[in-house]
Amino acid sequence: MASTSLAAPDGRLHRILRHLGKELRHVLPPTLFFLVGFNLIVFTQNLVLAEHLARSINFLVATTAALVVGKSVLVADRMPFLRRFDNAPLVQPILFKTFVYWAFVFIARLLEAFIHHAVDTGRIGGFGADLLENFSWNRFLFIQTWILVLFLIYTTAAELNDLFGDGELARILFRHRSSDLKQTRRQRIRTLAHLGRLTQAQSIAILHDPATPAHRELVGLIEQLARDVGARRSVAGR
Question: Do 157 and 211 belong together in one domain?
Answer without folding.
Answer: no
